Amino acid sequence: MQNLYETVKKAQMVVQVEAVRVQKELAAAEFDGYCEGELIKVTLSGNQQPVRTEITEAAMELGPEKLSLLVTEAYKDAHQKSVQAMKERMSNLAQSLGMPQGLSEGLK
């Protein structure tokens, strides 16, 4: 029984170390999102923190309401890409640790 306990403790440590590694990778990664026509580019980190927003002169000429919509569209695109990358990395982590398929699906 003691061996089982030690094995479980070691497995927990491996999972924690690998999860921290993946989180650090994601925090350092950047994901660009664009609005239609690529008039605006929003960059988010892998943990969905805003990094920068680039707005073209052409976007500025569209007026504040349209500009707001385009910024939101670009932000949503960057967010979706960042979340998808996180899901893929967490799923890969679960698979590399030999977690059952159903359990790794829960990480998405």
From TrEMBL:
GO molecular function: DNA binding
Subcellular location field: Plastid, Chloroplast
Lineage: superkingdom: Eukaryota
This protein's record includes keyword DNA-binding: yes
Any one of the GO CC terms: chloroplast
Keywords: Chloroplast, DNA-binding, Plastid, Transit peptide
Coiled coil: none
Keyword Cell wall biogenesis/degradation: no
Family membership: Belongs to the YbaB/EbfC family.
Protein known as: Nucleoid-associated protein
